[in-house]
Amino acid sequence: MKPETESSVDGNKSSKNWAKPDFFPNAENIPEKFRLEGGVSINQTLIAGELREWHGPFAEVRSPVCLRAAKGAEPEPVLIGKTPLMDGDTALQALDAAVAAYGQGSGAWPSFSVAQRIEHVEQFLTEMRSHREAVVELLMWEIGKTRKDASKEFDRTADYISDTIHELKVLDRRSSRFETVGGVVAQTRRLPVGVALCMGPYNYPLNETFTTLIPALIMGNTVVFKPAKYGVLLIGPLLKAFQTSFPPGVINVIFGRGRDTIGPLMKSGDVDMFAFIGTHKGASALKQMHPKPHRLKAVLGLDANNPAIVLPDADLDLAVSECVAGALSFNGQRCTALKLLLVHESLAEEFVSRVSTAVNDLVAGMPWETDVSLTPLPEPGKVTYLRSLVDNAEANGATIANEGGGQVNGTYFHPAVLYPITTEMRVYREEQFGPLIPVVAFRDEAEVIRHVRDSEFGQQLSIFGTDPEAMGGLIDVLANQVGRINLNGQCQRGPDTLPFNGRKDSAEGTLSVSDALRVFSIRTTVATKSSERNRDLVTSIVRGRHSRTLTTDYLF
Ligand code: G3H
């Protein structure tokens, strides 16, 4: 293991360095600025505006990065901290605080003007930015995200927050108008839903969580927030920022296992809005616990199994580089990752060979190293699961096309290009959420269409080709199957102003900077018959500033 400065100039770094015994560093080989000396622990939580010490049990947080405890010892996932393992009672205290702060819609926060709420969110953004380095470092250590991607996640989140503020001002301006229709004069504003429960995923523990948390808050909802199962420690530096930026009870944070904490919250019936990124099975189980599920508004980002379709006339260089990036960015741990590559048989072998070469050129290493793109995996048991998918594919006739594909070193799993994949193999259907590139050869477009139609999931897909007629036809046939079709490019959520959603078991609701503001609010209309008396009454309310809701004030 070489220090950071040397790794970027080592042209040979990718040649199976991951298989070497010194792939994982000794503690003293870690560049000083990236050492997490003494670990980082969270021993308090934020409830009702108080940072409360936690005196109960804790969960150990281990990094996917392995270190040797002593010379000659096997590298083990290093202990980097601990987080509170809260119980249902504590979670209910957090919910009670959110319910009280909402005050049935008459609490201070939902009563604030848009301008006041924006001020609080801006204060939070300023404080959050001051913790950039700490958050990036914790993303590297806890989920193994490369420094480059962790920095991108932080900056994208900060941009998302400022774009949300801008979009809310636009929305507010539009909502300040009155309309007269069918003899009725009316004004429609977007008002909060109530108490929101926000839960994020481990692969984007900051970004995806905040793309629901911030819109929920800024629209006037109060929130209980539970961080993802990994990627929890980065919330530590932000707890104080939440406390100082928002009035008591507006945001409450709980830690622990979902089964201990979330069940009681749902069963209480006090959650009005459920924002969840995870599996569709988990989401359904939690929604069903609510005593009045019809009252629970939900926005869900769920499973996906996005395919790439490579047509016979595709630009192969482009298709290969986009498919490798789409399948292996953050080791394939993106809900938008390309999980199955369907390639026309006329170029399938050439495609597989070029993908294998491209994978060989990727650099594996520790998250802080320059030029690294493949890193160890944070989920315990993940390498075993991935290996079982590879074994199943091999047992059914697939081969591993790239050198070292599917080999394991501790928590590191080297990407495997699997070919030819057939319908009976597990990896054809299961969302691997990891560094496997399964390639299917197809003869007829009908096979591709059948695959997409029969899939349980419908988030996105990619089509690679150059013939306008063929591409146009496929777009039409597949447009009602997914939320986004990417032409000659990998699947992705960004830019964040575009709608992000899915069909079937992939999502409920649509998120984007502007859509999220709509998701976390309800349009509420004040209307009256357009008689002279009523118009005078409305004018007096507005001119005399007798209402916070019925007002023509707006923000520039
Ligand atoms: O894991 C799902 C993320 O929202 C994907 O975002 O496509 O921009 O990486 P991304």
Automatic annotation (TrEMBL):
Task: Name one matching Pfam family.
Answer: Aldedh
Keyword Oxidoreductase assigned: yes
Q: Where is this region: Disordered?
A: 1-24
Q: Which UniProt keywords apply?
A: Oxidoreductase
CDD domains reported for this sequence: ALDH_F11_NP-GAPDH
Q: Which residues form the Aldehyde dehydrogenase domain?
A: 80-521
Organism's domain of life? Bacteria
| Polar residues bias locations | 1-17
Q: Which GO terms describe its molecular function?
A: oxidoreductase activity, acting on the aldehyde or oxo group of donors, NAD or NADP as acceptor
Database matches in InterPro entries: Ald_DH/histidinol_DH, Ald_DH_C, Ald_DH_CS_CYS, Ald_DH_N, Aldehyde_DH_dom, Aldehyde_DH_Superfamily
Family the entry assigns: Belongs to the aldehyde dehydrogenase family.
List the PANTHER family.
Answer: SUCCINATE-SEMIALDEHYDE DEHYDROGENASE, MITOCHONDRIAL (PTHR43353)
Please give the name of this protein.
NADP-dependent glyceraldehyde-3-phosphate dehydrogenase
**Protein's organism:** Marinobacter antarcticus
Which taxonomic lineage is given here? Bacteria, Pseudomonadati, Pseudomonadota, Gammaproteobacteria, Pseudomonadales
